[in-house]
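Chain A, query sequence.
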Amino acid sequence: MNVLEMSDRAMGAGGQSSEDRFWPASQRLLLNKTLPILYAADGQVTVSGIVQFVTSAGTKPEQYLDSAFLARSFAAQTIVRADKSPAVRLPVNELKALIDFWVHEYTAIPEKTRGNQVISLSAPLDRFRSGRMKSCFCDRTTILPEFAFQGGIILLDMAVSDWKEDGKLGQVIFKHGFERAVEARNGLDPSQRERPVFLFCDEAQNFASLKDEEFLSVCRSSRCCVIYLTQNISAYYARFGQGQTDAADALIGKFGTTVFNVNSCFRTNQHASNLIGRGLQSRRTTGHSTGTNTSRGMNEGSNTNKGTSSNYGSSTGSGQASWNSGSGDSSGSGENWGVNIGKGTNESRNYSEAEQMDNILEPNYFATALKSGGPKHNGLVTAIWVKAGASYRETGGANWLKVTFRQ
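Chain A, predicted structure.
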């Protein structure tokens, strides 16, 4: 089932919807009913045997009573050998249940559904029936993952650029076998479990699987170090398929040490920023303002005044008399006007500084502030090294560090 899943993902068919889960269940059912009969009849199980069995199984119960069908059907011949002359004898009840399935239950499945079940199992396995995949995985065994326990370094020369889907699938299969062997080594003799081993994957998005997260959870107790290199974390999301982003995040989160080089992927850089976290940051603000004002005005006015006055009086005395009178007029007018103009400029600057909780390293930092090597940077590459639980003096006790590598 793991090989079938890996085959689907190698061909870009990962991330099944709930409606598609019927087919893996059908594959498992056919395998459960095929492998025991093959092993009972011949004492071994081969990929070719599996494919031959399911593609030659009868579609009607009466076919198993037909001598002509028996002569040409690999499935019918295998059932007879498992019953009459087994290499490994199965319990009677178990063998009877298997035969009943192929004779009665399997033949009762609607023809279209049955055909799809056969194709879903035989198509991904067919690549192992011939060519280099058969040579690597289905011929005589000449190499084991356990060689690493005695100091062997195993290199898989299956370049994806040359082998395409076979290169992905072949390396994932061997990696899965290595992980299974490492998980089981603690039950072996001490000489098989003392040596530290490692699993190194460049372009790891091509070889990551849902099983890796489980292995990373326990590999430390089996003395295995896992190193994955990839262009960005979006590659893992694409690899696992739609609806499996949580699985990708779970895988990424299992690595205790992460090294971030210069990167243009926003999702990766956002992840890096969030991983390092937030802290009190000193933020300075500067203000500068200039202005000019002009005023212009005019005033104008006039005034006029006019008045009259008069007086009259008389007096009488002994031996004389007198009188007097007078009158007068006065008037005047005036005008005034003026113009005034004013102009002024002003300029001000202000500074302030405050502490606030913010990202220690912004996402943009990982796209702009790290060296990428080459002549431009004198062969130097800088990166941000993040280790869970670490406390580095250079960054004030934080768990991250800026490091430099020479190409």
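The CA atoms of residues 222 and 264 lie 36 Å apart. Residues 1-130 form one domain.
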